[in-house]
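[Q] Does anyone have a clean structure-token version of this?
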Amino acid sequence: MDSLITAAAHALAAGDPLGALKRIALRDDAPALALRGIAMAQLGDLVRAKALLRSAARAFGPKEAMARARCVVAEAEIALASRDLGWPAKALDAARATLEAHGDRVNAAHARYLEVRRLLLIGRLDEAEHKLAALDPAPLPPALRAAHELVVAGIAMRRINTRTARAALVRASRAAGVAGIPALTAEVENAALVMNTPAARLIARGQERPLLLEEVEALLASKALVVDACRHVVHEAGTMVPLARRPVLFTLARALAEAWPADVTRDALVARAFRAKHADESHRARLRVELGRLRAVLRPLAGVSATQRGFALVPRRAREVVVLARPVEERHAAVLAFLSDGESWSSSALALALGASQRTVQRALDALAAAAKVQSFGRGRARRWMTPPVPGFTTTLLLPASLQGD
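[A] Here you go.
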């Protein structure tokens, strides 16, 4: 490897893409194409970066398997940055195996972190945690140690384990400081900001207020009966009743919890559960059936008693009933929550992350675009969607895995 290539590689490792391009911008040999691709990725031109890396992979000879594998890893990193979550995981896994076989443990570990970060984005926490456990960050360079701790923090945040998340962020900050890469330091700072912005809203006794993630954790560990409108479950002291697949029952549970300790009129329950403006006898009959089902599923935690006006929730052990709601609630809040990270997403990536069909996501995006809440650029498969972050909210932490109501 000649001195210019070596110098460009050192510049990229230090987060200086312009310094790298000064040395190799006019060269079209395979190593230079690969480094130019990485430099363009660091500068934000992901389309050009992907094209350069593919050219580099083709230019490397059949005996340069490790160099081609590094190009695959770099392309996977670009795909992750551009939220193209449908890239072939098998190709990355094969590249990682090649790097490990040739003794390149650093880039092999980088490939594994990319795989774990993708799993984290699409909500497969158990699988991400399992793969992360196989990695030892101690012998890795500071940049990869910071990446490791960011993934640890991301998993802990989604599991609402704030002590683990904060400790990981402290370690990530130290490693990023040693690495001296401004972009990595900014990523750690943005992750830390999530811990200091509201993650949910508490609704109790007719009042509401925002909650930080630590407060959410404390609430879930308390003895209160919590109707969780973020995950669509009802839980108390370790006992959980999932209602994500029973939206009518959850709507009734939430209405009763918001009114507690007061009752809710029959007409109000009909309006919320069945979206009927005027309740007739058929609606009231259906309400009795659904409330009977709600009593059955909530029996370990609470009862539903009839009152003169309607119905009231009666907890069995809890002295307090509260509702945990998203910071922002609207029809397509789940889509907006993922777009609020400031990155550009494809509709296919959103569908994968949300566990919904691509057509459902596309309809949601079209509706949000008509309301001027999101914007797109590009055409066909290159079309991407984005929106400015919602100020003061971290909305991706407590979302259910599917688009409710679609």
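[Q] Thanks! Anything notable?
[A] The first strand starts at residue 200 and ends at 204.
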